[in-house]
TrEMBL record:
The chain crosses the membrane at residues 147-169, 245-263, 342-360, 392-415, 427-447, 479-497, 584-608, 650-671. The keyword Transmembrane helix applies. Keywords: Membrane, Transmembrane, Transmembrane helix. Residues 470-580 form the TMC domain. Belongs to the TMC family. This is Transmembrane channel-like protein. GO terms for cellular component: plasma membrane. It is a multi-pass membrane protein. The keyword Flavoprotein does not apply. Residues 27-65 are annotated as: Disordered.
Amino acid sequence: EVFLPEETRGAAPVDFLQQLPSYQSALRRRATAGTQERRAAPQGPAGFRAAEGHGPQQEGGEVAARPAREYPLSIAEKRRLRDCQQADIKYLSGWKQWKRTSSKSLKKVLSEVKELSSYLELWRHDIHSIEGKFGTGIQSYFSFLRFLVLLNFIIFILMFSFVTLPSIISKYGMFNSSFAKIPPKNIEPHCTVYEPSGNKGLVYFYTYLKDLLSGTGFLEVTVLFYGYYTIDAAWISILKYNLPLAYLLATFAYLALSLIWIIKRSVGGFKQNLVHNEDQFQSYCNKVFAGWDFCITDPNAARLKHRSLQYELQTDLEEERLKRKIADRTTKEKLRIYSLRIFINIIVVAVLSGCFYSIYRATVFSQENSNVSIRHDDVSNMNFQANLLVQYLPSMVITLANFIAPQIFSFLIRFEDYSPAFEIRLTLMRCVFVRLANIGVLLFSLWSQISYCATDKCNACGYNYELYPCWESEVGQEMYKLMIFDFIIILAVTLFVDFPRKLLVTHCSCKPVQWCGLQEFGISDNVLEIIYGQTICWIGTFFSPLLPAIATIKYFIIFYIKKISLIHTRKPAARPIRASSSNFFFLVVLLIGLVLAFIPLGISIAHIPSSKACGPFRNFNTSWAVVPHTIDGFPTGLQQVLYGIASEAFAVPFFMVICLIMFYFIALAGAHKRVVEQLREQLVMVRFDPLFCAPKV
């Protein structure tokens, strides 16, 4: 480790700036000078102790015991330094000797535990194999898929432990437990009637299949959906468990866990993305001298990497050509291109409006007709097919919109005359918007049906109790159907599109077939596909607490489906994206999906009246009302503290403090940016002025 002079140490950049090539170059120059000084210093224990004295000082003036490998010395000098460090231990006190020995032992144990845990990592060998054959870009997709599997598994453990398990234990009387149901007060009797459409008597097989695919029938009364959790309190031995509060807090906990975990993983990608945002000359040098991926071992992947580097260089040249073209545009040409972009964006808005209106109409039609068929209890085979089609109509329309809209966007972007990199980003953002907005339109359509009241009896309940006696379970069923249908589409595309196409390309020599070739494994499209499913999971977990378990199994199977598809039926994309930037982009889009999931969940919890016939919030006007009701049971002093935190008198100063902290970090980031610019200027001086780095006499 090399230490900067005092005047530089005070303005040292933060850790992520130390990853910059310019900063590392400055460190190497100082390391060379520092090594020469150490070699000129007296050798032996005293000399090495003097060299070690340049290291960081611990509290109390004790010299930090750093391993010899951390010093920029030769192997022989490191060995002598290690012998000197071991010889110095006998002169330390017993407490310091024990402290140094225990520190080394702890570091060794932690290193061994970390190495052991790496062998227990999920799909470790598979992902390394994919990285070796296809490079780090495709490997980043499978690593991202593994992250979602782990995230959903943790969310499932959270919801099962604090919501599902206490309900099961109390309902079956395990561990001397019991439960309490408090009848709703000041509620009209007709609002509390809920008769799930369970199967009675002789049931056909296809009825079970319909229930399994749609979440109705026998599944509607299981722990999978919100309507099962109708108890108000659980008594486990002598402990009282407040299930409504636990249900709400578990929802906040999985959302907060997802947010913190995504932000934590985004930090590393942000640092790499910041380092890679260099000027064009540095970008060109990195592609030419450091662009090769040494993880690649497959010859086909190597040829693909060659084409990828060639494409990136061509893209850079094309962007430079477009910059000159933009600079040379006349006023007439600018007017023409801006008018064309406005017209194309109007077409984009029209396409989005058509998708949203189609989803709205399909949802309204599905809700009205599926409820009619359930009330009539049709069980014939023809009615089974028609009813299943009606129930899955919103999911099919959403899937169709997710397929057609990106194709239209990819076609229209060619006429907008953007740079290739900006074309990719703009198309991806439009695709992200259409996928996530489709879920929002579906929920809006459901809420419009749930909130529609035309009679006084309906207004007394606050929602459409006739069609939706337990509206939370209805929303959970829609999220369940979206997730199941999304998985069916992924499986069907692999089995009935990719495999036949592979067979045709392999065994048919027709020119049209060979011209089409194999389908490319588009990283961005596949990532948007699973982020769409993850957003559904975040929204649906409140209405279906075990939906994360289904998402975990779904993504676990998708990993092997995509792996087989990549190896046997598809080819890597000819225009791959950098692994570092792709990881950061994946997490940013996932964060957008999480933020958008907050909106419908917030409306459902705080605005829409909760069902009075089912669920843990039957006795509350909204789900959020359980929080002030719980606070009212606290001691008076604690109540005043909590209400004071929630008041404007606390919120305004807190907001001002947050703003000051934000302004401080903005100023700090500006200072770090100036440090980066100075280091780059020094690097330029070193390159053009040999006297700049000459040793001072």
